[in-house]
Write a structure and sequence with these properties.
Helices cover 37% and strands 14% of the residues. It is α+β, with helices and mostly antiparallel strands. The protein has 2 domains: 18-235, no CATH class; 253-412, no CATH class. α1 (18-25) crosses α4 (102-132) and α10 packs across α12. The longest helix is centred in the N-terminal third of the chain and has 31 residues, at 102-132. This is Phage Mu protein F like protein. Pfam families: PBECR3, Phage_Mu_F. Residues 312-410 form the Phage-Barnase-EndoU-ColicinE5/D-RelE like nuclease domain. Residues 64-183 form the Phage head morphogenesis domain.
Length: 414
């Protein structure tokens, strides 16, 4: 909330907020296979995730993770498109609408991305509006500048009581690509200060079966079924925003949670992020401008069990992560030419891109003793590719509920 009590308006396709992430994460426990876009309708989308034509479980899980990354981490459309191509190839998915042309793929990925970003944004805003107790809601037009919907333009500034039945049908988005939104006010005068017009008339026919300005299937209020749940879930992350990418997953069944974690690490954009994070640290970027941690996804149940077996520590709900100090440590200890005398080669920023794959595909976690500086428990995992063995050592940080990279080196087979 802003200081004046008004819910803060975040960029729709940019930095996520707690309620938005909570809404989408609440759907991950119910992945719905479908053949057509209208196989699930209206507010059924509040409690289930689907992509039209995605019927196989592995495919749907991969797509859910790619969309979740866009929503929960504010990833751009470019990253989503790269992940989408990888998912299509990995799963051998054919017959999807848009397949076969660059324009078709761009349209389909944009539709999936924007629809989930907008509905999660609007549902999160709805939870904020309810929680804030605003008596008046104001409709704000935000459609495409080139192709605005005339009906949505006419609604701009419309101010009605929060409980008016109009909002049950016209709470945005009201169609494919719609980016309209609603803000709250505590009085008619307050609504006017926000650009609202309490004297504005509702569109004729707003309550008819063929209400103007609403695409088929969009005549409902996204998030209404789960507003209280979303508010409750969002409160869990207020104190630790750096953990928002892993929040709310405890309610997802363990098997599905493991599948989601492995799918996350299989996304090309996650490998890219690990590399870019290391590049920024090595370049000397201001640490205050870097994320405190770069997550690499949750531990699987198998990882949790291995840590408990070798360290007698419960790490349920922990994720793997990078931080600035780890990259700097690796550069000091394993980034120079002296590595050759140890039968190793210098670690570069490019090597960090392999960490997500190492965490998914390498052998078991191994006891690596205790950290000399913090006395924290250490575990390591190794993976050999061609004639090189990558060794990553992670420190168990209980307060952060993370396994954070402690050191990283590459052995070269002679």
């Amino acid at each position: 909330m802003a200081d004046n009590g008004q819910p803060t308006l975040r960029p729709v396709l940019g930095q996520p907020f707690a309620e938005q992430v909570a809404f989408f994460r609440n759907k991950l426990g119910n992945l719905v296979p479908t053949a057509r876009w209208d196989d699930i309708k209206r507010d059924a989308h509040d409690t289930g995730f689907m992509v039209a034509g995605a019927a196989k479980a592995d495919l749907l899980t991969d797509l859910a993770v790619a969309v979740d990354r866009a929503v929960s981490e504010g990833r751009g459309l470019g990253d989503f498109r790269k992940d989408f191509r990888s998912i299509v190839e990995r799963n051998g998915w054919h017959g999807w609408t848009g397949e076969g042309t660059r324009a078709g793929e761009r349209w389909r990925t944009r539709t999936i991305y924007q629809t989930n970003a907008m509905t999660s944004y609007s549902a999160g805003r709805l939870a904020q509006l309810h929680d804030g107790g605003f008596d008046f809601w104001v409709y704000k037009h935000n459609d495409s500048v080139r192709n605005p919907r005339p009906e949505h333009q006419k609604l701009d500034g419309l101010t009605l009581p929060a409980k008016h039945p109009f909002w049950k049908r016209y709470y945005p988005p009201n169609g494919w690509g719609c980016q309209c939104y609603v803000i709250g006010a505590r009085s008619a005068a307050g609504a006017r200060r926000l650009g609202g017009d309490p004297d504005k008339q509702i569109l004729d026919g707003w309550d008819a079966d063929d209400a103007p300005g609403i695409d088929e299937g969009w005549d409902y209020q996204p998030g209404a079924r789960v507003a209280q749940t979303v508010t409750h879930m969002a409160e869990k992350s207020r104190a630790w925003p750096y953990e928002i990418a892993k929040a709310y997953m405890t309610g997802v069944p363990e098997l599905l949670r493991d599948q989601l974690a492995k799918s996350y690490r299989a996304l090309p954009s996650v490998a890219d992020d690990s590399r870019r994070y290391a590049q920024r640290v090595l370049r000397g970027d201001n640490p205050d401008q870097l994320p405190a941690y770069r997550t690499m996804g949750l531990l699987t149940a198998g990882d949790v069990g291995q840590v408990h077996q070798i360290k007698d520590i419960a790490v349920d709900g922990y994720d793997y992560a990078l931080d600035v100090s780890a990259v700097r440590h690796v550069q000091r200890k394993h980034g120079g030419k002296s590595e050759h005398s140890r039968g190793q080669r210098p670690v570069t920023a490019e090597d960090y891109a392999i960490l997500p794959k190492l965490l998914n595909d390498a052998g078991p976690l191994i006891d690596a003793g205790l950290s000399e500086s913090t006395n924290s428990p250490l575990v390591r995992r190794e993976m050999t590719v061609d004639n090189e063995t990558y060794v990553a050592v992670f420190e168990v940080r209980r307060k952060r509920k993370m396994l954070v990279l402690q050191t990283f080196y590459v052995r070269v087979r002679k």
